């Protein structure tokens, strides 16, 4: 087995746009669940709205890249309002069911032929990178070393993603230290007690859904910067990965989603490279394709163990974890 290739391919995910995008989306999910107690299983829809909003704005309406990104963020806010108005008064389990359905509805809407003029249905969208890459301040050349070697375009995608992630982390940190954030945590613990103090619980929940949704939409934009917008990427497995990342790092923490994303993708990539090689070498009684699929099983088992033995995550405090109540 070529361990050099295995470790090199794994290490590349440390600074990957996929890792950064998932960290952003998980940060938005932390606002929803970790701080507000909203059991949202439809974060994939927010990412899809952000990515498609950006791509359609550039391709169909000829808008500059920065305005397209703002429209993608606005789309995440509008979708949060549409989703939240009829559902935020539901109990946690019913809210989870409603958000799962909303996520699938959004994905199927982007695949239908009805909007083919703008979405290109199941084939997705590409070719919207010109403006963003034209704004690249990094001179042409090769940068980095080893598995972290990039040309100017790849580096620009990563630098921009890290900047957006840093802004999202700073925003969440500031909000959760403010009176607004303290009210939000109170709603997570006992919304009836907060309501008895005269606070509009529904309004606070809606605000958290909008803010977290916009952060998730930015994750969707970063997710599609390197290649294309493909509706098949926004399946329920994406939300499942985000929840694994969130619980791994710590749901009610500022840096937990980022740490969880890095660990998750390093382990996921390592297993994706190691298991097929083990099968080819005869160490696993299965084909290399089956061995590659085995990592999904292992991730599921890991999520179960996390919920049972450390539901607060690596950086979390068990006293702030509503999941175990």
From TrEMBL:
Keywords: Cell membrane, Membrane, Transmembrane, Transmembrane helix. It is found in: Cell membrane. The chain crosses the membrane at residues 12-31, 38-59, 65-85, 155-176, 209-229, 241-271, 292-309. Pfam families: BPD_transp_2 (PF02653). Signal peptide: none annotated. It is a multi-pass membrane protein. It comes from the Bacteria. This is Branched-chain amino acid ABC transporter permease. It comes from Microbacterium resistens. The lineage of its organism: Bacteria, Bacillati, Actinomycetota, Actinomycetes, Micrococcales.
């Amino acid at each position: 087995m070529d361990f050099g290739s295995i470790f090199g391919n794994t290490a590349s995910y440390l600074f990957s746009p996929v890792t950064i995008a998932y960290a952003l989306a998980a940060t938005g999910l932390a606002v929803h669940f970790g701080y507000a107690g909203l059991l949202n299983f439809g974060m994939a829809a927010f990412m899809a709205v952000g990515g498609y909003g950006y791509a359609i704005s550039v391709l169909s309406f000829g808008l500059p890249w920065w305005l397209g990104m703002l429209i993608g963020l606005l789309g995440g806010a509008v979708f949060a309002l549409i989703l939240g108005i009829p559902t935020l008064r539901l109990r946690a389990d019913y809210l989870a069911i409603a958000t799962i359905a909303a996520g699938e509805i959004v994905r199927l809407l982007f695949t239908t032929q009805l909007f083919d003029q703008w979405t290109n249905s199941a084939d997705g969208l590409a070719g919207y990178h010109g403006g963003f890459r034209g704004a690249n301040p990094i001179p042409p050349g090769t940068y980095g070393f080893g598995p972290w070697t990039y040309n100017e375009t790849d580096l620009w995608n990563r630098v921009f993603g890290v900047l957006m992630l840093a802004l999202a982390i700073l925003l969440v940190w500031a909000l959760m230290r403010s009176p607004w954030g303290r009210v939000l945590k109170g709603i997570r613990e006992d919304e009836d007690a907060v309501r008895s103090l005269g606070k509009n619980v529904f309004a606070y929940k809606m605000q958290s859904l909008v803010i977290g949704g916009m952060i998730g939409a930015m994750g969707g934009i970063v997710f599609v910067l390197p290649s294309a917008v493909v509706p098949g990427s926004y399946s329920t497995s994406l939300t499942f990965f985000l929840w694994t990342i969130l619980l791994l790092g710590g749901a009610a923490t500022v840096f937990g989603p980022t740490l969880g994303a890095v660990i998750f993708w390093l382990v996921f990539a390592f297993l994706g490279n190691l298991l097929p090689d083990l099968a080819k070498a005869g160490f696993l009684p299965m084909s290399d394709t089956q061995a590659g699929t085995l990592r999904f099983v292992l991730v599921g088992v890991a999520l179960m163990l996390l919920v049972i033995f450390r539901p607060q995550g690596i950086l979390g405090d068990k006293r702030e974890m509503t999941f175990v109540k």
